[in-house]
Amino acid sequence: MFEVIEIKSKEKSEMIDIMDSIRKIVDKSGIHHGIIVIYVPHSTAAVTVNKNYDPVVQQDIINRMNELVPKDGHYQHIEGNSAAHIKSSIFGSSVTLILSNGHIELGMFQSVFFCEFDGPRKRKYFVKIIEG
Amino acid sequence: MFEVIEIKSKEKSEMIDIMDSIRKIVDKSGIHHGIIVIYVPHSTAAVTVNKNYDPVVQQDIINRMNELVPKDGHYQHIEGNSAAHIKSSIFGSSVTLILSNGHIELGMFQSVFFCEFDGPRKRKYFVKIIEG
Amino acid sequence: MFEVIEIKSKEKSEMIDIMDSIRKIVDKSGIHHGIIVIYVPHSTAAVTVNKNYDPVVQQDIINRMNELVPKDGHYQHIEGNSAAHIKSSIFGSSVTLILSNGHIELGMFQSVFFCEFDGPRKRKYFVKIIEG
């Protein structure tokens, strides 16, 4: 089970909750036990798990990451998006979730977020389920 | 093979070596080849691999992360634990280990650590083994 | 399918593109669908996915990480490499890639990089393929 999902970011930096689309893919797969890998094929974006309940948390995360890795640092890369590349490696290109009895084993308020660091852009993410 | 383990943190910020419990679950499973996913269902905690030999390394990691993401930053989230949410995404919600010939393939002094960033609290982590 | 690859870093801090060796292992395996886990058994190194096209991006990443986690901080660990341990947990000890139809599903300019934070040294990384 491998799916490619298209997504459109609207901001320069943004965390987009993609949990609904992951749940649909898992339901469609009919797989009840295994792991789910979400992978982002962009090196100025990332994927992470965090709290979905209060959007202010996502804004606090984005703001602090912008302070730690400012857009206009002492970078040499002429495209001007080195900060986004750095944040991509700090957060990471994939997350792995556990699937048990047809249920994705998350914490109560956890969601998976696509992390845009150099938007707005058309983007993609991949979902792969391994049964076992 | 899916197990839920309960754990109790004692400090505000703390790295707890959970390698013994992971090894027991692997032994009990009887699985000799595959991967092991350790997942933390809390968005103010994380899981990481680092050095187990000298506890001072863990303290250096915690201290520097507290400097990079101070508890009292310019955060909006009213629960006052935004720093813990940010550190959670920086370290990540899961680690994946390789199992070969019944042996977990780690470096000589590596362990998996549950990372508490907003304790002390009762916490959980999940262990899932995929054979292959 | 489990392989141990030896590598030699040449710099104190360095990102080494290991995509060719991963592709060879995947080809040799004959596996067409699944996931690929790359694991680094060193807690002063890491592994990450980022842009391979412009080496300046890798230098920008290394430089900013050295600013965020300076070699000579207020660390207690007597070996003097606490900064490398901290960067190891920030970037992480493994990456997971998706394999579909015999093709590793990466972005156009993405590669996997072995991240040396305390070189130069002889190092290793592990590659494990799970079919599914």
Structure description:
The structure is a homotrimer of 132-residue chains. Chain A is built from three helices and eight strands, in the order ββαββααββββ. In chain A, a hairpin with a 2-residue loop joins β5 and β6 (103-104). The two termini of chain A are 13 Å apart. Chain A has helices at residues 19-29, 55-68, 82-91, and strands at 2-8, 14-17, 34-39, 45-51, 94-100, 103-104, 110-116, 122-131. By secondary structure, chain A is α+β, with helices and mostly antiparallel strands. The first copy, chain A, has a single domain, classed as YjbQ-like (Jelly Rolls), CATH 2.60.120. The mean pLDDT of chain A is 97. Chains in contact: A-B, A-C, B-C. The interface between A and C is medium-sized, with 34 and 33 residues.
Secondary-structure map with pairings?
Three copies of one chain form a homotrimer.
Chain A lengths: L1 E7 L5 E4 L1 H11 L4 E6 L5 E7 L3 H14 L13 H10 L2 E7 L2 E2 L5 E7 L5 E10 L1
Question: Which characteristics define this entry?
Answer:
homotrimer; 132 residues; alpha+beta; Jelly Rolls; five-stranded antiparallel sheet; three-stranded antiparallel sheet; 3 helices
Q: Total number of helical segments of chain A?
A: 3
How is the biggest beta sheet of chain A arranged? 5 strands, antiparallel
Measured between the Cα atoms of the first and last residue of chain A, the distance is 13 Å
The amount of beta strand of chain A, in percent, is: 35-45%
The general outline of chain A is elongated
Q: Give the structural class of chain A.
A: alpha+beta
Oligomer: homotrimer
- CATH superfamily caption of chain A: YjbQ-like
CATH topology of chain A: Jelly Rolls
